[in-house]
Amino acid sequence: MTDTTRDGPQWRHGFDIDGQSGGPIRLAQVDRRFFELRSRIDFRGHTGLEGRVPDATIARIRTLDPPERFLTDLGSVPGPTRWFLGSYGEHTPAVIIHDWLIPVSRTCGLDGMTDQYADRYMRFMLDEVGVRWLKRWIMWAAVALRTRYAAGGLRRVSVVAWLVAALIGLSTFLYTLLFGEIGWVTVAAAVAPALFAGLWGRQYGAGLIAGLTVPWLLPPTVLAVIGYAIYWVIESIAGVVLAWLGRAPQDPGTMAAEGM
Fold first, then answer.
1. Number of H helices and number of E strands within the chain?
2. Average pLDDT of span 166-175
3. Which of 85-94, 107-116, 231-240, 249-258 has the weakest average pLDDT?
4. Over 80: is that where the pLDDT of 190 sits?
5. What's the mean per-residue pLDDT of the chain?
6. How would you classify the pairing of strands 15-17 and 20-21?
7. What SS3 class is residue 85?
8. DSSP string spanning 1-47?
9. Sheet-wide strand order for 15-17
10. Sheet containing 35-37, strands listed edge to edge, beginning at the edge strand earlier in sequence
11. Is the backbone of residue 26 left (phi > 0), alpha (psi -120 to 50) or beta?
């Protein structure tokens, strides 16, 4: 069960849990990663899909009351980026509903709904619970990236092309800024995110935000990866040493002192 404060969780402004405004979400952990949802979640706010999909679809996606076992891993946040965003928090009910909707093909009776609309819906739910503008747009960009890659085909190709272009542009910008003269190459690399975000199609905004935030999100993430790698090496060495000590024969003098 989620923790609540004296005033209740932050999602009380936009969600009803089991009919209670901002009530606790009941979850049962079934393994290292997944939880089983045992609560009904109703969203009361603006979905961002009004006029885009039929009203019946909007009514359906407002309520998550799974008739059968529904598992969620909450926020699918890679370990190295958890310094910025946790896998749970005020965004918990929004990411659970998004988990349920993705992929849309898994659900039934959602006329006009697409995976891209599900991503947009999550952004509006995040707004309702008070996640600040830049953070929720970064979260939207992250889920949109995953959705486009998972779709395969041209969408996956466009994501890979964008990623390559973004890395080249970022590297060029940093190199010319640190070691070369600031000129047209630096300017071109700086504006490249706005150009290559076009590879995201209708999700241009997500591509733009992703391109503009990479320069300051990447360094601490890389440091986190390096820190974990160092820990893993130390842990592995310790494991080998302890295993060797456990198999090594004891000294006879030590055995005698222990009364053996």
1. 8, 7
2. 74
3. 249-258
4. no
5. 83
6. antiparallel
7. coil
8. -----TT--GGGGTEEETTEETPPPPEEE-SSS-EEE-S-EEE-S--
9. 20-21, 15-17, 41-43, 63-64
10. 27-29, 35-37, 71-72
11. beta
Token pair 């979260």 in the structure block, residue = 139
CA angle 101, 128, 211 (to 5 degrees): 70
166 in Cβ contact with 211 (< 8 Å): yes
Distances (CA, A) of 163 to 46, 137, 160, 171: 32, 18, 5, 12
Digit-coded pLDDT (tens) for 191-224: 777 777 887 788 888 888 888 787 778 888 889 9
Interacting residues of 42 by C-beta distance below 8 A, sequence separation 6+: 15, 16, 17, 19, 62, 63, 64
Can you give the pLDDT at residue 186? Answer: 67
Q: Which stretches within 29-152 are classed as H helix? A: 55-61, 92-101, 115-128, 133-151
Structure tokens at 20: 């209670």
**Lookup result for tokens 């089983």:** 36
